[in-house]
Amino acid sequence: MKQPAPRVRAPRVRAPRVHALLVRVSLVRALLVRAPLVRVPRVHAPRVHAPPVQAPPVLRRAFLLLFSLSLLLVSPAGWSQEKFSKPFLDGLAKDASRASVSPDYWQQTRKMLEREGISPLVIERDRYQPEFLESLHRYTTRRLDAKRIARGQKQLAKHAALLERLQIEYGVPREILVAIWGLESRYGDITGRFPVLLATATLSAEGRRSAFFRKQFLTALLVAEREGFAPHQMLGSWAGAMGQMQFIPTTYWQYARDGDGDGDIDVWHNVDDALTSAAHYLKRSRWRENMAWGGEVRLPRRFDFTLADRQWRKNAFWRKKGIKSAHKTQKKRLLKNNKSRLLLPSGAAGPVFLVSENFRSLLRWNNSSLYALAVGLLADRLQGAPGLLQKPVEQSLRKEDIRRLQQRLNALGFDAGLADAVFGNQTRQALQRYQQREGLVPDGFPSLETWQKLEL
Hints:
The chain is built from 21 helices and eleven strands. It has a domain at 399-453. Helix 7 packs across helix 18 (369-382), helix 8 crosses helix 10 (174-185) and helix 11 packs antiparallel against helix 12 (210-227). The protein is 51% helix and 7% strand. It is α+β, with helices and mostly antiparallel strands and 456 residues long. A five-stranded antiparallel beta sheet has the order 8-10-11-7-9. A two-stranded parallel sheet has the order 1-6. It has helices at residues 16-34, 57-72, 86-98, 103-116, 120-127, 130-133, 136-143, 146-158, 160-170, 174-185, 196-206, 210-227, 249-255, 271-284, 315-320, 331-335, 358-365, 369-382, 399-411, 425-437, 448-453, and strands at 7-8, 44-45, 48-49, 194-195, 235-236, 264-265, 294-298, 313-314, 324-325, 339-343, 352-356.
């Protein structure tokens, strides 16, 4: 791996063990303080009924103190009943040695992993990812709120000079950079409090994407040792994403840049470094200058929905099919795109989008169509564009529902892949083929009519 010359400044944070204990005590205290006074239940006896009795305030405060102190005796690692296995840690030791991590630093890291154990909270977050469970309506309502839009517009004005320089140098629109910033960390407010080494080791041991997260863990080891982090000190998201733009370790290692020329790369606290690194990464992800990400469109009557969510086609093809921009202000910019793809995230009854090849660059940042759409829509709103013409369908699926759907499609001979409760492209295409056979609208969306037809 080629190491960038500038060094990274460690985020100034509490040790996660102390922080977790304080959070647990304060949370329990808050819940108990708001709770009603303790009442002794009524005692039923012949012709005698004891009235409710309130516990004295002194007793209530004593109970609060004892309960909070008892929490301090329980280690945060106590939440995890499962430890990292010796063969797993021995395998990491060999990989760390091959990656030139020093034996001393690896031993520090190993002790931390043995002490904390596999993080159940990280696994829980991994199994509930809103990009694959929430509807477009729910996902965008939570992320395209008025406060986030207003703050984004202020950031555009505040960092106008920097954003203009980045747009000239990298060809990435300022609104796209600020939209990603707003979605990833609320403009730097939330950068994550999970120890990156523990999070990536947990996901590597968990097995669903072990090879991917093993690589993230080893890269994070290199970064942490080189920059003098204690093994628990480099913090990020549950998936190991770091800083204001939430770079995973391998992305940071390859693409992070010093934006203000001070010799440091600090993606946690330095806005210049964070935004410059983001622009550099998007350019290297084949972002094309002067090309819109896409936009909302209108479909003609009797449209062939099997054309959606599949191939990239030239815009001349879509024009012949009668597709038009939903907003007059976006008509010219959509026509400039070379190739586009049609997306129906809410099915035929919801908004329809024609997305460009720059949409692929956003998917490289986060491989979720909902995320990439949210970036594009927020960027448009930051420029003063109106909201969606067609409102999304208000429908979200539970993980159990998606798993049942996948199992049912597989049983009927439509390959939805592994029943992993993730509504991805393979599941969508399998559902689309089923809808086409049954004479339903083949939009790949689990509408109520489709659900009833599947007898789920």
